[in-house]
Design goal:
This is DUF3137 domain-containing protein. With about 240 residues, the protein is of the alpha+beta class. The protein has nine helices and eight strands. The protein has two domains: about 30 residues; about 180 residues, no CATH class. Helix content is about 35%, strand content about 20%. It has an eight-stranded antiparallel sheet, with helices on both faces.
Length: about 240
C-alpha cells in the first residue's frame, strides 16, 4: 500500500520536496564536489588577495583567508570569491564554538570609485543608525539602507535602472570598494549562490552611468598582489 504521507508524483508536494532536496544537497557539498562545481563554472583557485582580505576584515573583523577563486571575463573584468575564517567565539556554556566563516564575492570596475554601501538593515536598524539616504524609490528605500559620504554621487550611481536591478536580489548586501563591487554573506560559499552574486554585481557594473565613471572615477595602480585584476592565470 502506498504511504499516504509520501508526496504524490507530479504533485505540488513532490515538487517542493525535490527543490528542498536539491537545496540541501547544494548546501552540503563535499569540498571536492564544490571544487568541481567551481571549476565547471570557469573559476580557478588562486592565492588569497591581500586587498580583499582587508575588505573582509573591515566588514567583520581580522581573520584568516581559507581559500580564494577567480574568473576572468573577456572584457578584462575579474570576479573573485574569498572564503574567510573569523576568530572562534566562546559559547554561553563556556565551550569554544567553531570558527565562524564568511564569504565575499567581488567584481572589478574599470576605475576606482568613492565608497558606497547598500545593506539590508531593517527599518528599526535604519532608524537607530540614521544617515540613511532615501532615493524616492519606495520599494528600494523600504528594502535597503544606503550609506555614502557624497549624496550627489550616491544618487548618480543609484539611478532607477540600478535600483530596479538590485531589487531582484533583495538579500544581497554590497558596496563599492575601490575598483570593485563587493558582496558578502555568512557561512561557506555555495557555487550556485556565487553564480547569482556574480551575475548581480556584473549587472550593477553594466548599468553604471558613464557620467559616474567620468565624474567620480579615478585610475589607480595597485601592487600586483593587491590588484584583483591580476589574479587569473593568463591575465596581463
Amino acid at each position: 500500500m502506498d504511504d499516504p504521507n509520501s508526496p504524490r508524483p507530479g504533485g505540488l508536494m513532490a515538487a517542493i520536496v525535490l527543490v528542498r532536496d536539491k537545496i540541501i544537497a547544494q548546501l552540503n557539498l563535499h569540498p571536492d564536489q564544490r571544487q568541481v562545481q567551481m571549476t565547471l563554472r570557469g573559476l580557478h583557485k588562486v592565492p588569497p588577495n591581500e586587498w580583499l582580505c582587508h575588505v573582509a576584515a573591515q566588514l567583520y573583523e581580522p581573520g584568516e583567508p581559507r581559500e580564494m577563486w577567480a574568473f576572468q571575463f573577456p572584457n578584462r573584468m575579474t570576479a573573485c570569491v574569498l572564503e574567510y575564517v573569523l576568530p572562534g567565539r566562546q559559547q554561553r556554556n563556556g565551550r569554544a564554538a567553531g570558527p565562524p566563516v564568511v564569504h565575499l564575492v567581488s567584481v572589478t570596475l574599470p576605475l576606482t570609485l568613492p565608497p558606497l554601501t547598500v545593506t539590508t538593515d531593517s527599518r528599526l536598524k535604519q532608524f537607530i543608525k540614521g544617515n540613511d539616504l532615501h532615493l524616492g524609490h519606495e520599494a528600494f528605500d523600504d528594502a535597503f539602507h544606503v550609506r555614502a559620504s557624497d549624496e550627489q554621487y550616491a544618487r548618480s550611481l543609484l539611478h532607477p535602472s540600478v535600483l530596479d536591478w538590485v531589487l531582484r536580489f533583495r538579500d544581497m548586501q554590497w558596496q563599492v570598494a575601490g575598483n570593485s563591487l563587493v558582496a558578502w554573506g555568512e557561512g561557506e560559499f555555495v557555487p550556485l549562490k556565487v553564480t547569482q552574486l556574480v551575475r548581480a554585481l556584473v549587472g550593477i557594473a553594466d548599468r553604471l552611468p558613464p557620467s559616474v565613471l567620468r565624474d567620480y572615477g579615478r585610475s589607480t595602480t595597485l601592487p600586483p598582489d593587491e590588484d584583483p585584476r591580476g589574479l587569473v592565470p593568463g591575465f596581463d
